[in-house]
Fold each of these.
Amino acid sequence: MSTAVELPTLKPKDFASDQDIRWCPGCGDYSILAQVKKLLPTLKIPRENFLFVSGIGCSSRFPYYVETYGLHGIHGRALGIATGAKCANPNLQVWVVTGDGDGLSIGGNHLIHAIRRNVGMVVLLFNNRIYGLTKGQFSPTSEFGKKTKTSPLGSIDYPLRPLSVAIAAEGTFVARAVDVDIKHLGYVLGEAARHQGTAFVEIYQDCNIFNHQAFAYATNKGTKDDSVIYLQHGKPLVFGKDRDKGIRLNGAVAEVVRLGHGVTEDDLLFHDESMDDPSLAFLLSRLRVPAFPEPLGIFRRVQRPTYEDLMADQLKEARDKQGQGDMTALLEGPEAWDVA
Amino acid sequence: MIAKTSERSTEKSIQELDAVTIRFCGDSGDGMQLAGNQFTNTSVLFGNDVSTLPDFPAEIRAPAGTLAGVSGFQLRFSSHEIYTPGDEVDVLVSMNPAALKANVGDLVEGGLLLVDEDEFTPTNLKKAGYQTNPLQDDSLAGYQLHKVKITTMNREALKDSPIGAKAVDRCKNFFALGMVYWLYGRPMEPTLDWIEQKFAKVPEIAQANITALKTGYFFGETTECFAVRYVVPEAKIGPGRYRKVVGNEALAWGFVTAARLANKELFFGSYPITPASTLLEELNRCKHYGVKTFQAEDEIAAITSAIGASFAGALAVTSTSGPGLGLKGEAIGLAVMMELPVIIIDVQRGGPSTGLPTKTEQSDLFIALHGRHGECPVPIIAAKSPGDCFYTAIEASKIAMRYMTPVILMSDGYLANGSEPWKIPRFDDLERIPVVHLTEKNNGDDFLPYKRDENLSRPWALPGTPGLEHRLGGLEKEDRTGKVCYDPANHQHMTNIRAQKVRNVGKMIPPTQITGDDKGELLVIGWGGTYGSITTAVQSCQRQSLSVSAVHLRYLNPLPGDLGEIMSRFERILVPELNMGQLRTHLQAEYLREMEGLNKVQGKPFLVSEISNKISKMIGQRVSV
């Protein structure tokens, strides 16, 4: 794909479409869009090679707001569409934008299978713990007991954790970021874009109309330091305003400890993105406030052949073994005969 | 032409026959499909015209010896052109009591009945629901019954074989096959060659099967069992190069060919479902043709992957049967809105719901026509014979790409599994399919993804093309620009355009062919796999100079432009279909004319006699077939 020709330098404004953005003022999606538009030019990929695919939901309006090839599909089905496009043209840089409803409810099945196949694409799941576009019903990530229009006495659905699902689906790149945490978000998106295979990113997103401040604990100055922990590969899990708290394993269970009084950083859990066994990543995906700070960053990053590469390899293998397909041989088969 | 087995001199008399219908039946796992397939192959190579009807149960392995487990294979082979596997069975080969019970009703009076006598044990008789042994009472007196100790003789012949006892018994089907080969003067060579190839890695099995086949053959020759031997001469078919073809194979090759003709990559996204699964399997054997196959996690992922692949520029196809067509409805609607070429194959089976997975039917016309919410027209095309599946695939691809629309291709279980001799087309003689992808803006400095040509078709601009970035989606869009648009007048306008575009497909429909005169008393209109039965019945009418003609529709939406005029020249119209009147309802609504139906929903194709009897009743004259 790389050529000797100088590619024109792209800027964020080259990725701005001419559409009026229809998200509500104050929506977290604006921030995410800005970070994506900031990132794309830096990837040094021609603009025409990007493909944004979405389903249905506020998240899924995203393709209209970037000046690239885009497919606004049907509810829950973006991943099938994206898989087909990537397999047909592996040179495309495919991004999928979905939400907690589109991706985990109706689209849950497709999410699991796309991830386990490791199709080369970046999957952004905007998790606002609510159904925004349809105006306020609960979603698969809404808290137990959440009162919404379709759960006036409180939701009796036990919620899913997107990252736990992604890790269970054998995800090779699994990460979390926060919509307004723009520097970190930009970093995570950049790492996701560079990953070979499916890069799944859960983004905590604020729906200020139907579920405002669902993630306030992660963004408010006063609570943030004790409520989130930034993962860094090879570094111990330390958090807190004074960086005086940490997470360590006690047997198979995580616990929060205070540093000092005999407890040093060396006693803590050290993050390892590249562990083959996904158990550590899964454990991290279970950490929730108030018992634990919620991890942000890259939970897991391992290498595995991508689906599209395996598909192309098999076509090549078949050609090597059986020779380039000959149409006459196909039509005649092994036992043709002539009638005079 | 293949060499025939050397004729040994024999006292038996030889009787020439025009055509024979033979049915092999036994337990699933008895190798009846294999025996039937081999007899078909051999007969096709011998030069007969052949038509087949495999009949197998839905379960993988029902309890041995029960009626639920009976598997059968019927074929008709002939010295003239035939279109159906036969109404009545002339020869029934039954490997056990259950098979006999399930099938003897179809054996013609005086027909040849060969049974494996050894299998008629008290246990097996009980399993089949027999109170007494039919081989010993008079119940089979109306047939030419031949009780053959197939199991015993097969075991005897293979007593020195190193393979185990179970494997020995599995060779019985070859014994039965050998007997019938001798009876009908079939050469053993093609099957011998096949056995050696198929079992090359297990020579003891190959040898056992060969021994079983020859033993059965020589049994026929040597014993007093059969007084008469039969010969069915080669059929006179047009000059050319031929092979045996099975419907689903032909369909698969049709798409591989279409992709080559269009200079495109074929992408096939599918999910296993009876009777369409063999399409996915066959295309998986074509990787060296560059075919990309994707076994999706479900029916919806199958079609959405095809939509994505189509957007990226592949010739994109998905396949299913009735239940899957239901699931794919929403996605087909998306493809209609996105105006992308995608072919959806429906290999119909008994419905509704899970229905009869291994039995044939043609009851999905309504869902093909109407199975999407909104005003959502889709072109529909139907194959009429196993070999025709090849050409239908190419035609569907042409329509899809020229008009930028999904297309539904209807087949059915009977065609999918049926086989016949097929005149092989020369690839170089097939018309290329021109496809244009925009490389530049199409409206001055702008690119308009919905700017239409004279067919009302929009441009197919592929991702990866600089400067043509655009978004497609399911929301209503402004004409020409493709931007999301809720304007009332625009929605009406787009609805009208989408409908007109599908009507424009009519330009591709050739003049309708009529079997018989172009006017008369009765016109029989059919579609899909009923072609064989209808044609045979109507040809009999022609031979008796009756005023009956036939039209077989390939295009169901839009309907051919000349159909109204053709129908007006006939006094009455009969629409035979394997459903409760779906085409008839569609035609009546379109042409505001009453028609009569012949409707059968029994999981079986029409018997020729069912159609000819109905015609007889309608015209008041007996039709003899």
Amino acid sequence: MFVYEKKLQYPVRITRADPAMAARIISQYGGPDGELGASLRYLSQRYSMPCGELKGLLTDIGVEELGHLEIVGAMIHQLTRGLCCEDLTKGGFDAYFVDHGTGVHPVAASGMPYHAHAMASKGDPITDLHENLAAEQKARTTYENLLHQADDPDVIDVLRYLRQREIVHYQRFAEGLAMVQDQLDEKNFYAFNVGLSLAEDCGNNGSVRGCGKCGCDD
Amino acid sequence: MQNKCNNCEGGNGFVSLDGGWGSVSWSCGHCGCSNHGCDACSNCGWNRCGCNDGCGAVIYTNNRRNRSSDCDKDCQNGDSTRQNRSGDCACGNQTRSGNSGCNTCGTRSLYVECCDENTYIRDFSCGCSSNTRQGRSNGCDKCDESNGTTYTQGRSNGCDKCDECSGTTYTQGRTNGCSKCDECNGTSYTQGRTNGCSKCDDDNGTTYTQGRTNGCDKCSKCDDNGSTYTRSRKNRGVGMVWAAEQELDQIFESESALRAGTLFPELHKPMNGYCPGDCNCQTCEQEAAFAAWELRLYLNTHPDDKQALALFRKLCEETEDPNYATSFLKDMDCCSGWNWTDDPWPWECRPCGK
């Protein structure tokens, strides 16, 4: 289940409103490579992982992404506080404002609403871990794109922190992938899907839902 | 095909067949025979089944294939049919022994060339469910166990057994996963084995040999002469990722870690021109909590790292935030290792430990 801790993982203290920037950063809230998609992806993939290490890893990183979603939401909120009327017509924000005011709504910077097409949960641990590696890189690139367009040091500081977290997650997923491949026949990592739970007579070496620990010798 | 017969009753010179054999009609010496489908027995000159026509008081089979001098004699009590006629059938479910051609085994219509276990002589008795031929010239894919030599590789019946007699390393390249490492002489194991048996040599403290295909390249130890670890494995499979090693002795202090975004300098890859700022708005609890969280992610993929575990406990104590500390400490068993990742997980509803 889920417990909420009443603090942000990284502080967000933005003093200068900037709705145009908010309209860009919203992509990390509801865009294809944003934190909502990331957390939903990881929390959904947990169920078909073959060993506890991966279930724990995906749970923890999925939860951290929810924490990042909160940070991004906080940025949007702070960037759209105390706006003057002329700000409401600023390019990039005006369209968003029509539908959402200064509320926070999961859309991409393009206005495309959040959708699950941008995430994959394929039930194959190798596939899912590669998906996650790619997702972290896409998120990193998005933060870099945002950093190129930011000028407020308070905003930059948070974006930089979130970008670094994506790199760390990338590393953890790479380690998770290495754990899975150590479990498999190195001549053919794709011989069978370790996450697929089939009845014994369906092949797949029977049920191979892991021994509980990746890298066990059984 | 109509053979005229001399003594055909009925005057029409033929016996027409009833059932089964289509429009073939036979004439026979003793017309009126209602059995059908017999091939001509050259000795008899008759082509009527079911008749005692001088070929012997036997019943001919319906599907004669060999019309040599002898009639196809049917197995009297079985439904099997002979294909090679060089002797008598043992009828019914029994099969012929010896090297003649009874080709039925129960419901089988072809006999299986089986190997005699000791001599590899083909034994045409049916019911040899194992030891089927694979294409060997001696007709028998069986491993030779008598002389203790290694078996011929490349057999398709999974018969590659490794030689355990001599204590040397096993021949590699076997397809049945039989390559075992030599544990006798204490040297590092031969590389390139396909059964995942390449173990790293722990004894002499050198770096492990690289290029192994079974994921055995662990470089957690330095060479005694201080050289850096070799990192590039050559055979890592298709599409696999190499993850960087992290040294816990090098981690950032908690206060810089939160600002940097990671505890590990190896993972700290800032974008050009964007470095951690000087903001002092974090609290100590946030910093320790972040460091503990980072270690939590690290421990998920390195659950046996004792150093990390000890550091994690220490950071949890520094985190005075009651919400944070208690929820973490509850996940931990203070005496054993990192058990957060233990199965089962709540959605599985399985008994613990399996």
